[in-house]
């Protein structure tokens, strides 16, 4: 990199800061010199936050940035993000993502059997509990897509998404992070189970009453409420939230609003 430029290449963000997306290798001393002159330049410009995205190949520069006052914001498999706040006023850089999003899938067939699994690892392993398929929502994945995918991955069953029945908010579940878990109802499109070998010990179609009567479900209130919601849905006295595609002023792609449309469509 040509040091005569004096500052690091950066782009402006929409919040009055700059983003440095480093690509080229450089010596840590050269980086320190550029970083100091860049911070002075951005301060004179009235910039606020500075984001430096370090690819894993340039991890040698992380210590230099920290010594200049930067701190870790978050990391992904291929990069580390560091931040710095220039003004003397209070820092308004948003913290790293505070939540994971998970789904649980209730799949009920016409025989009133529910699709259940036993896991090979995790908190449910070894306690003899049959549970519904669950898993995390991937980045860029819709809730309904994640529910369909998790069922397919764990049991080999194809499904159609029906509704979100409820969601649960828990805290300090994973390295101090919080979780939002969506309980979803799905309709099976296939019935022959092919369980996942890596994580699933067993999978089966179980009579709903047998599933509901498991002692664990009576002791664990979230499962108890899940069973009550499922029964209410089957008896058609409960309406959940279904995804509706909506357009946005801010993005080109359609996204989804999850709503209870009961009575809404009739009035429109």
From TrEMBL:
<dbReference type="InterPro" id="IPR000086">
    <property type="entry name" value="NUDIX_hydrolase_dom"/>
</dbReference>
<keyword id="KW-0378">Hydrolase</keyword>
<dbReference type="InterPro" id="IPR020084">
    <property type="entry name" value="NUDIX_hydrolase_CS"/>
</dbReference>
<dbReference type="GO" id="GO:0035529">
    <property type="term" value="F:NADH pyrophosphatase activity"/>
</dbReference>
<dbReference type="InterPro" id="IPR015797">
    <property type="entry name" value="NUDIX_hydrolase-like_dom_sf"/>
</dbReference>
<dbReference type="Pfam" id="PF00293">
    <property type="entry name" value="NUDIX"/>
</dbReference>
<dbReference type="GO" id="GO:0046872">
    <property type="term" value="F:metal ion binding"/>
</dbReference>
<dbReference type="InterPro" id="IPR003293">
    <property type="entry name" value="Nudix_hydrolase6-like"/>
</dbReference>
<dbReference type="InterPro" id="IPR040618">
    <property type="entry name" value="Pre-Nudix"/>
</dbReference>
<dbReference type="InterPro" id="IPR020476">
    <property type="entry name" value="Nudix_hydrolase"/>
</dbReference>
<keyword id="KW-0479">Metal-binding</keyword>
<protein>
    <recommendedName>
        <fullName>Nudix hydrolase domain-containing protein</fullName>
    </recommendedName>
</protein>
<comment type="similarity">
    <text>Belongs to the Nudix hydrolase family.</text>
</comment>
<dbReference type="GO" id="GO:0051287">
    <property type="term" value="F:NAD binding"/>
</dbReference>
<dbReference type="GO" id="GO:0047631">
    <property type="term" value="F:ADP-ribose diphosphatase activity"/>
</dbReference>
<dbReference type="Pfam" id="PF18290">
    <property type="entry name" value="Nudix_hydro"/>
</dbReference>
<feature type="domain" description="Nudix hydrolase">
    <location>
        <begin position="98"/>
        <end position="230"/>
    </location>
</feature>
């Amino acid at each position: 990199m040509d040091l005569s430029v004096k500052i690091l290449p950066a782009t402006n963000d929409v919040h009055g800061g700059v983003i440095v997306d480093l690509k080229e290798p450089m010596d840590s001393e050269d980086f320190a010199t550029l970083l100091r002159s860049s911070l002075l330049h951005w301060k004179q410009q009235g910039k606020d936050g500075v984001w430096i995205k370090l690819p894993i190949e340039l991890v040698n520069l992380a210590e230099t940035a920290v010594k200049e006052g930067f701190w870790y914001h978050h990391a992904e498999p291929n990069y580390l993000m560091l931040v710095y706040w220039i003004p003397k006023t209070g820092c308004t850089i948003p913290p790293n993502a505070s939540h994971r999003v998970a789904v649980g899938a209730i799949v009920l067939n016409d025989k009133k059997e529910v699709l259940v699994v036993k896991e090979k690892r995790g908190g449910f392993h070894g306690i003899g509990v049959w549970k519904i398929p669950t898993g995390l929502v991937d980045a860029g994945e819709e809730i309904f897509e994640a529910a369909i995918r998790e069922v397919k991955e764990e049991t080999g069953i194809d499904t159609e998404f029906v509704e979100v029945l409820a969601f649960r908010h828990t805290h300090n579940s994973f390295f101090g992070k919080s979780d939002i878990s969506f309980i979803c109802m799905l309709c099976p499109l296939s019935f022959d189970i092919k369980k996942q070998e890596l994580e699933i010990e067993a999978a089966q179609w179980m009579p709903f009453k047998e599933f509901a009567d498991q002692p664990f479900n009576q002791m664990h209130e979230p499962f108890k409420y899940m069973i009550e919601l499922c029964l209410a849905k089957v008896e058609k006295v409960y309406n959940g939230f279904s995804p509706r595609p909506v357009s946005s002023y801010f993005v080109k792609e359609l996204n989804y609003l999850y709503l209870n449309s009961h009575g809404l469509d009739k009035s429109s």
